[in-house]
């Protein structure tokens, strides 16, 4: 893709398809969000899912870079599966619609993670300008694909916290359908917690018993952070464990490349942690973390399903990630939008996030408010309150 240069009032922007083209000040502008910095973006460029293409947006005031953003194109026709856990009529209808009427999707933001990771600025920009910029960029990328005889069906602006969504709704997004999917589970860590004992001491009896039971079941499992060399050694097994979990998710729009975790470790070094779980030297599970300033971001994981059931592996992973966050004095942990009930049982709270979506066919777009809710899996869950004072 050639670099585009367009004027929006006093602000200009360029759209890039290669990390090598990015301005040298890119990481300085993106310094508060590791998911918009070049080490992570190089992971996407080098080992993106086979059905994904990324675009990088630089926003300028005169000749100075003041903002960065990410866009991702997904071709759902290349997907091996949308997810195999839920087999019901609604799921089959959803999959049919996506395959036939929404297979080419453009995201402004990062479809691979949960959280507000669409853009970053190093100075205050009003929401009216941001919303216009995002829509203009989406339009230009859509036109780029049209010239290649590819019709973008769906455009989605992904994951905004409530205050941003309200602001966007007042400006260029006001005519675009706003949706809420599963909440983002976020654990705000009290600053006075210094170690794991402080955390466990706050549990009510029921959840302290759950913690003890999980740790007793976990007996015999060795846990350790893996070096790059160890990740390379276990690469096939890591991917096998990841793929098992991903394939059995209720809905997928991509699958990671087999070299994703190895490349991530090469690019991000100590900021990327892959923790392995071993049963008699056999890798039976792993979780990953990205150290994002004062925020600990949970990333992808995988496990052997039989061991998970016997050893309560997933729950122990959540406890271990929380322990890591406390001991390393992170302000909060982003747990994402899956397994809501069990994440609430370890202390995470649901945070509603909004997205905006439109179909490029104006007739389909008119009924988006009727169609979209029917495509979302029905979610019934009970929030848990594990602490004494909750």
State the domain count: 2
Based on Cα principal axes, name the global outline. Answer: globular
What oligomeric state is this? single chain
The level-1 CATH class of the largest domain: Alpha Beta
Largest sheet: 9 strands, mixed
* Uncertain ranges: 82-90
By DSSP (H or I, 4+ residues per run), the number of helices equals 15
Q: Could you tell me how far the N terminus lies from the C terminus, measured between alpha carbons in angstroms?
A: 53 Å
- Judged by helices, strands and strand pairing, the structural class is alpha+beta
CATH architecture classification name of the largest domain = 3-Layer(aba) Sandwich
User: Which strand-content bin applies to the residues?
Assistant: 25-35%
Average pLDDT figure: 91
Rg over alpha carbons: 21 Å
What is the β-strand count? 16
**What do we call the CATH topology of the largest domain?**
Aminopeptidase
* Portion in helices: 25-40%
Describe this structure in words.
The structure is a single chain. With 390 residues, the chain is of the alpha+beta class. The chain has 2 domains: 4-182 and 353-375, Aminopeptidase, CATH 3.40.630; 185-351, 3-Layer(aba) Sandwich (Aminopeptidase). The protein contains 15 helices and 16 strands. The strands form 2 sheets. Strands 1, 2, 3, 4, 5, 6, 7, 8 and 16 form a 9-stranded mixed beta sheet that branches. Helix 2 (38-47) packs antiparallel against helix 10. The termini are far apart. Residues 82-90 have low confidence and may be disordered.
């Amino acid at each position: 893709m050639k670099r585009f240069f367009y004027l929006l009032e006093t602000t200009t922007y360029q759209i890039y398809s290669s990390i090598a083209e990015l301005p040298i000040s890119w990481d300085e502008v993106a310094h508060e969000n590791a998911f918009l910095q070049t080490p992570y973006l190089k992971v996407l460029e080098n080992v993106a899912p086979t059905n994904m293409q990324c675009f990088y947006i630089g926003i300028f005031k005169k000749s100075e870079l003041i903002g960065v953003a990410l866009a991702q194109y997904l071709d759902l026709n290349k997907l091996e599966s949308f997810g195999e856990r839920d087999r019901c009529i609604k799921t089959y209808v959803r999959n049919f619609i996506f395959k036939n009427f929404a297979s080419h999707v453009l995201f402004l933001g990062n479809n691979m993670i949960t959280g507000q990771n669409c853009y970053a600025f190093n100075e205050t920009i009003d929401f009216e300008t941001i919303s216009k910029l995002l829509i203009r960029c989406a339009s230009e990328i859509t036109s780029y694909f049209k010239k290649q005889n590819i019709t973008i069906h769906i455009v989605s602006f992904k994951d905004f916290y409530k205050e941003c969504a309200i602001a966007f709704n007042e400006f260029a997004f006001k005519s675009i359908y706003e949706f809420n999917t599963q909440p983002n589970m976020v654990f705000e860590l009290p600053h006075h917690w210094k170690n794991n004992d402080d955390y466990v001491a706050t549990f009510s009896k029921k959840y302290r018993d759950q913690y003890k039971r999980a740790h007793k079941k976990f007996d015999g499992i060795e846990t350790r952070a893996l070096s790059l060399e160890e990740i390379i050694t276990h690469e096939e097994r890591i991917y096998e464990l990841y793929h098992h979990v991903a394939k059995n998710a209720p809905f997928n729009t991509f699958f990671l490349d087999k070299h994703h975790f190895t490349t991530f470790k090469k690019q991000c070094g100590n900021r990327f942690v892959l923790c392995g779980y071993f049963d008699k030297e056999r890798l039976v599970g792993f979780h990953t973390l990205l150290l994002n300033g004062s925020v600990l971001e949970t990333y992808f994981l995988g496990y052997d399903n039989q061991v998970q059931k016997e050893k309560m592996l997933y729950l122990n992973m959540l406890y271990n990630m929380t322990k890591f966050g406390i001991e390393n004095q992170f302000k909060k942990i982003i747990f994402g939008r899956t397994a809501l009930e069990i994440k609430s049982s370890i202390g995470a709270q649901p945070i509603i996030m909004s997205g905006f979506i439109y179909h490029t066919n104006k007739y389909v777009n008119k009924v988006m408010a009727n169609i979209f809710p029917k495509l979302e899996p029905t979610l019934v869950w009970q929030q848990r309150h594990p602490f004494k004072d909750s």
